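From the pipeline queue, job 12 of 40. The input is one protein chain; the requested action is below.

Action: predict structure.
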Amino acid sequence: MTSTNGMQQTIRPSAEGDRLELLSPTAMPRAASFLWNRSMLVHVNCRGFVTARHMQPEPSRYSYAPLLEQETFMQPEQPHYGNHPGRFVYLRDDESGAITSVPYEPVRQVPDEFVFSVGRSDVEWRTTSNGISACLRLSLPVDDVVELWSLEIENRDDRTRSLSAFPSFSIGYMSWMNQGALYRDDLGGIVATCVTPYQKLADLEKILKLRDLTFLLHDQPPVAWETCRERFEGEGGSHSPDALRAEELGNGTAQYESPIAALQYKLVLEPGESRRLRFLFGPARNDDEIRAVRSRYFDSNDSFARAGIEYDRFLQIGQGCISIETPDAELDAFVNHWLNRQVYYHGTSNRLTTDPQTRNYLQDAMGMAYVDALMTRDMFVRALGQQRSDGQVHAQTCRASSGHRHMPCPSRPAGSSVSAGRWSVDYWCHGSKPGGSASD
């Protein structure tokens, strides 16, 4: 595929078709991918914006906008803005003071080389600017609610370079009741705290069970940090933060202020030398959960990489039973690597909602027939078991919106059997007679 001017390649697939690479941060600014596991969904934009949700049991945030947000489901192609939540790394040349950012936001300086590389089980950015290359990679574990980030910076110049790297992960406006953040040396990272807003005392018990902490843990200690977003950005904003003008960050604490998780690493790299850093970003209920996450992924040298391998195996379960080989290589790649992945996500996650629309639930069930036929059967039994003989769907689970309460689907007339052992249905539309057609 070529760019609009036909002069430069914009997208390139891998030879096997299981990766796609975008070579410009501006040609398709809404290009994105997503990763999910049994408990969370992360929507990743090519420019570095990220939207994430986890289940507890309803969808919840751990990285917020800088202002009060309306609760809504995850938008597939939502618009972005300058301070949209994201995962960024500022790079500063400590000799010249020049600042760039990886992947592209918030500085928006087009790098000499840019690759947004989307795989089935990971997302990666590779950039090069002024002789310094950076590789930023995201993966997930199978079960835990945590983002696994790695950053590798390499000096491709022919001289020694002195740099500062500032991983900067958005936390945002967490709560109007209480919010703050500080660096926790005992936990090895920044921890932001809040109290989810409530107005009835009866709700307090439920609120106290939520994951209201957001953490950014590191595998190597930084030289400095900042946890208050306003002090970090100052008058320059996220595009040119005031805090980056000083030699080191201010080690500030956010007290009833919107937090940010910003760390600083000073790097002196010889020609050809590189440095790798790893981070864990996610929510927790308490300090013990944070310690457990740190131990699980940082205590062993290979645990971080092993989590990525296990996650890839988790996605391979959804490979499905269809594989095609045609003269159209792009169609082959779409069906063999990406269509089954989308079906597997919908069928196993219920689109990250505890109350899916019945229409979505049934069509996702049909898609799972190509991945796990037994799950398809169970989903149909569940949906039809909540349907009355007149075609209405009960409003407890699999609830549809008012505009989709009646829809063509297998109907369960009075007297039909829907049980764990066996079931039978007549395929006729709501309002028709048994054996009739939709037009009866």
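Job complete. Residues 1-8, 399-440 have pLDDT under 50 and may be disordered.
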